[in-house]
Give the backbone structure.
Amino acid sequence: MSTTATPTRQPVLYLSHGAPPLADDATWTSELSRWSGSLSRPSSVLIVSAHWELAPIAVSATTGDVPLYYDFWGFPQRYYEVTYDAPGAPELARSVAGLLSGAGETLHQDPARGLDHGAYVPLKEMFPEADVPVLQLSMPTLDPHRLFALGERLAPLRDEGVLIVGSGFTTHNLRWFNPGAPSDAPPPTPSAEFDHWAAEAVGGGDVDVVLDFLARAPAAREAHPRTEHWAPLFVSLGAASASGGVDADSVIDGFWYGLSKRSWQFA
């Protein structure tokens, strides 16, 4: 008589994903690798990247044979030759569709959409064998409260063994990005100020303050001239808080060419 193993309830992550040259940063890649090594193996990954805004809400291809989406320019050719052939996740897509339909939303599928760099760049370091099914979900809005509610609807996936990942950047002002300096050079003051605030607000589980970051955080509009790289955090917070409260662990910190790479795991 065969039995089916009960999926392990997964945490929720928000990570700073880096640009394609992240792969050349030995410190950051080792941090991501150690992080994934501390996790139980997920049944699949649902990732929300800063680089896919689309309404109505949609999911990426589920067949596993669609090329990556190289959504960047001006880099050496080798970054456009990276592959990450993770399996598709059609069952996860159906589960997501069911959860959203319960809230009156229809999930669309883009069969030609491969994983963008906000998804595959960190996942290649965390799950290098590309043997965990991955599905990418679009952000239908940048409104913090709506994204938080989206995360709440997705929370039941955690008990199916799904690792929900918000992928952005804790500070993201590309005017600060200085590849001529060491990658770990001291950050601009506004980047450091926002990072310090984020560490305290997210670490303290102060969801209302985080959702109101434009009014509450120091240097918020400098740290995020446009808010798409902070927005995936709201989905992660919603998924994490659905069972009551937010228990956050800052797993990665520090700066990369002036940008905060702080990343959290939510129990």
Summary: The chain has nine helices and ten strands. Residues 12-266 form a domain with the Protocatechuate 4,5-dioxygenase; Chain B fold (CATH 3.40.830.10). Strands lie at 12-16, 44-53, 58-59, 108-109, 134-139, 162-168, 248-252, 255-256, 259-260, 263-266. The longest helix spans residues 189-203.
